[in-house]
Fold each of these.
Amino acid sequence: MSLVPLVCDVSVTNVCNATCDFCSYAYDKGQVHTRSWIDRKELARALPILYARGARYLNFQGGEPLLHPEIDGLVADAADAGIRPGLITNGWLLPQRVEALLDAGLRMLLVSIDSHSLEEHERNRGLRGLGERIRAGVQKARQRGIPVYASVTVSRLVQYDDLPDLLTSLGFDAVIFSYPRRKPFGSSSLVFSETSSLIDFDEPELIQALDGIESLRRHFRVMNPRASVEDVQRHVRGEEEIFACVGGHKYFYLDWNLDIWRCEAWSEPLGSVFDFAEIADQRDRCNACTMACYRDNSVLMHFGVALEDAASALAGGRLREAARTVFRRSVLSSIRSVAGAAHEVVRLTPWLNQRTVRAKAARPPTSELEEITS
Ligand code: SF4
Ligand code: SF4
């Protein structure tokens, strides 16, 4: 029984046009030695394999994904394969490309924001005038009714009290935080910096920054579940986490070489995506890192995964194991987190939101779509 859809982050290129201090994709860091681009035809060939494994969400990322010359086609192929495409971008090319992406079937947009100060954000990105481009792109996406979130990395550039004013003025619905990473990844991902002074937090500073996320909830919608932030704080303190990560089971990373990885943080790929059907789920309990997308989904998916595991135990006649799997404090906490994010879960889940699915299939004009999703 599969209740919980699989999510896959897809890096379509290692090229970026920005200079973010805390990221090694930045073009001024000299870490990208060979420019790479995912092959559209090959990804299209892989989509049915991903779908058969349970993938219902693909998040396109980079580098900067809008630099991929066929990003609209990649989005369209995913949508046509029945997998909801989302995308995270720095927003520089958004005004030019957002309409085509929406026409192609984009269902969620994330735009990176580094600071409560637009000036600081543009300085860190090395892109003057970026704010106005983000504002224009976000407005177009909102007019078409898709969720648009700010993606903010926890860093010294963020003052939490002042963040809502900027995010509201740029038109964001909500914010999702990601946590800083200093150690290099074992995978092809370069979203880390060993040298950035913006993210060299010691333990008390990082705990305080995570507390800032909790305070912000009173003023602006934060998408990271509270239980997830608390688990990351446990990790930072060296305490045992409550939730096992779903990386390698319900959440995967696919790179421009079409290699499928347990996650960005893993040291070797599981294999080619074309062999995905033969690659086993990774169910050993891993809590080695604090990557937000994996940790947040681990909390939200925990309840559904527990039900799946209980159903399989029941099918095997193991009644006590089934009961033990479901009646846990962590499952109750996951249910609370899902309830807290009910609005977004319904909005993003195709089989809970059939009206939106029909709207995507028919791709009606803007005014009609606004009516459907209002
Ligand atoms: S954080 Fe994003 S925009 Fe900034 S350098 Fe890295 S990939 Fe580029
Ligand atoms: S905790 Fe980190 S390293 Fe472990 S599976 Fe999850 S994302 Fe990967």
Amino acid sequence: MDTTSLWLKEPPDGLPRSRSEGRAEVVVIGGGVTGCSCALTLAERGVRVRLYEAREIAGGASGRNGGFALRGAAAPYDEARRDLGDERARLVMELTERALDRIEELAGDAFRRVGSLRLAFDEREREALRREHDALREHGFAVEWVDQLEPPLDRLYRGAILHPHDGALQPARWVRRLAAHAASAGAEIREREAVTIEELDTDAIVVAGDGFIPQLLPELPVRATRGQVLATEPLRARLYERPHYARGGYDYWQQLPDGRLVLGGKRDSSFETEHTDVEETTAPIQDRLEAFVEQLVGYRPEVTDRWAGVWGTTPDLVPLVGEVRDRVWVAGGYSGHGNALGLACGDLVARAILGERPPELEIFDPARAVLPWQSASHG
Ligand SMILES: Cc1cc2nc3c(=O)[nH]c(=O)nc-3n(C[C@H](O)[C@H](O)[C@H](O)COP(=O)(O)OP(=O)(O)OC[C@H]3O[C@@H](n4cnc5c(N)ncnc54)[C@H](O)[C@@H]3O)c2cc1C
């Protein structure tokens, strides 16, 4: 089976092309959400910026993900407050809420602001949800406790919290649009050109590679992590109005406007094989995903698409944004949570290159003392 994502199969609108042979002041490596966001900010400020993408725009994780546009970083808000402290956790949350507003402005029909539902699989997870709910409430962030779940969720889960301002993306359509915004602002975008850091003659290089950071900057504490997804034929009924996730993000699904179910996860059944940058599906995980579809839908619809993608995980699940070698910058390591964060961090790294010092840069400083590797992470 072809393992291109359902999202990338949609024909692209086409990019305003601008090709110049001159020297760029900044070169961005990677044409996902991070690289396109960075290129957009730099081009808007009049910087001569060139972006190289080895495949096509959104060809990496940005066009292969689950399409969840969630606020926050990978850790739930109560854990973020514990690990980062109240002030920093709040800054990250606000940063990503602003990023969601920006997605809404720029993405058109690639974004539906329908909220997201985090479900409790068991009593323990219900307590975890309660902690996140209370931590968000205490800091004045919108969140709703949900006890009455509709069938079949009432049978499978023990309550949920609704994040009302999150949303659902067609991620490839969104990032292609973001690239078009960057190109219209003057960024030069070169697809199907892989580059190395060493060959580039420029003032600053931005490595916007997330799961490909280990290949490009192996000294950084980032691990390539694979996620697998499938999509079904349109379901017989409309069952799910917004992105849903459970078991700490190891199960996630959304039903698309045309009725298809996009569902991913089950990585926790095989951590060893999923620590890889190979974008291939495997039968054991795909079989588990299919069995899970049946639980959620009540029958086995035809699976029309299967794909895999790779993201970058950091030991403390907090991204890295900053200068890591002379004139070499990085933005990535979203630990499976990069749709809103990637937009924000691409902009942050651009502003850092321009000499600004937004407060979030200190939180994402690649030189921070990182925690030991945790055994599990989200998604
Ligand atoms: C299966 C899966 C499900 C996910 N689900 C979600 C979700 O629902 N919500 C969420 O918020 N996040 C999710 N994520 C994470 C999110 O997709 C990523 O964190 C985000 O897209 C990273 O964007 P990026 O631009 O930093 O990296 P990418 O989109 O991976 O872009 C990096 C690009 O760099 C290119 N590249 C690599 N090396 C070179 C080179 N030498 N020269 C030129 N180009 C190069 C690659 O081809 C790639 O296109 C998921 C990820 C996966 C894989």
